[in-house]
User: What shape does this take?
Amino acid sequence: MAVFHDFTQVRGAGELVSLPGLSARYQLGAELLGFVNFSGPTGSFKDSLAEGMIRMAEQDGALAAGGVVTGAGSGGFAAALALAGYRTGHPVTLCLPATVPDARQRRLAALGARLVLCASMRGRDGCEARAARIAAEQGGWFADAYGDDRNPEFHRRVTGPAILRQTGGKLDAVVVGVGSGGTISGVGEQIKAWTSGVRIIAVEPYESQVLAGGFAGGHGLVGIGCGFVPENYNPYIVDEIIPIPTGEGEKIAGEALCSDGLPLAPASGAVLAAALGLALKKEYAGKRIIAVLGGRAIL
Assistant: This one.
């Protein structure tokens, strides 16, 4: 009888799944596979990422045993960081705008985080500066998903190798949504180092095409499209940027649920929509496309 040590082993680095329903629906000439890594408690790959970054900070001496971990923001990474800190024995302080809804503040506090409210007029920069200052004052570590290289390093060590191992290195394109930039950079760098000819495709919201040099705008693809080009984003390994409208991401997420039982958040639906678009092109006939699906819908 196989018994896992804990849930982190169960969820692993992610698994490849075929999408026979969507493939039949769109009569695809390419092989389309989803790399699903959102089985953690918050419903995204950020659960594994947050704990992985903490472990690396411990290993390289940036974070002492029991030291405080700080973060900025109130999104999925903040929630994952709160849980990861509790599991690893590190108190977590989150710096977030005072305008974050009370319900979200209560949720983060319930996960064990200490909240520090910052002036909304200073935006993300103000929250990050406060988090960095608290970490410095308390001898802790600021978990900066957008600028700390431990984010892409996690994907160089874990996600990229998992995709290569599960595909046997036989793949032609990898499609990744860009939020903090860590996933596409780490995965892309690892795959390009060990293969040749694999195309790395970035996905961003149509309404906010900053990676392509456009303007930031509002959209509904939570988890990608942060409105600026993150420091962790490596443009040199990206072969193409595909913009997907919010409505298209929501539509394909709904189709994936009905056709293949895959509960995708709209941002993951956008990644799948971009991969579908590639799979419908003649030049991809007979080729293998991997869509990295990092966010689960809350049904």
User: Anything to note?
Assistant: Residues 64-139 form a domain with the Rossmann fold fold (CATH 3.40.50.1100). The two ends are 32 Å apart (CA to CA).
